Amino acid sequence: MSFKSVFNEKQEFTEPNRALHCQSLQEIIEHKQEIGRLLENLHARKTMGLDGMSGWALKECKDQLLELI
């Protein structure tokens, strides 16, 4: 199978919508606060998860990660 046979003009790639499905700004703020609590309570010395991110790195970058939300 070649690259051209997989991606051609007939099939267009569409990026999936990864936006939160929230009804209001208040729900987004609550999600952000909950994510902040989860990041704060991570055990920094535990082993990495399947994503390869250490708890220490996530805790250290909590503020920057929350800015992305």
Describe the structure.
The protein is mostly helical. The chain has a domain at 24-40 and 52-69. Helices cover 46% and strands 0% of the residues. It contains 4 helices and no strands. The protein has helices spanning 3-6, 25-40, 55-60, 62-67. The model has no long low-confidence stretch (mean pLDDT 77).
Low-confidence stretches: none
Shape: flat
**What letter string, H or E per element, gives the SSE order?**
HHHH
Range of strand content? under 5%
Count all strands and give the number: 0
Kindly report how far apart the N and C termini lie: 39 Å
Rg, rounded, reads: 18 Å
| Structural class assignment | mainly alpha
Fraction of residues in helix: 40-55%
Largest sheet: number of strands, sense, barrel closure = none
Overall mean pLDDT stands at 77
Total helical segments: 4
Brief account:
The chain has 69 residues and is an all-alpha fold. It has helices at 3-6, 25-40, 55-60, 62-67.
Main features:
69 residues, flat, mainly alpha
Ordered list of secondary-structure elements with their pairings:
Elements: H1 3-6, H2 25-40, H3 55-60, H4 62-67
